[in-house]
Recover the amino acids of this structure.
């Protein structure tokens, strides 16, 4: 099912984005700018909402 694949792919992308930050491999000073922080927050929010909707669709099937 395409939605299940979407959920797995988003999880892999989020894990791939967060792990380098946790291990201090990425300079997080880039996100001190308010614009960059807002874009990152908005991106994670939209991915979370789309994952939630996809989960509800999978639950109904």
């Amino acid at each position: 099912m395409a939605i299940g694949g979407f959920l797995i792919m988003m999880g892999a992308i989020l894990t791939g984005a967060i792990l380098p930050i946790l291990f201090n491999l990425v300079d997080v000073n880039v996100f001190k700018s308010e614009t960059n922080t807002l874009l990152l927050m908005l991106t994670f929010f939209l991915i979370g909402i789309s994952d939630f909707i996809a989960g509800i669709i999978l639950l109904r099937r």
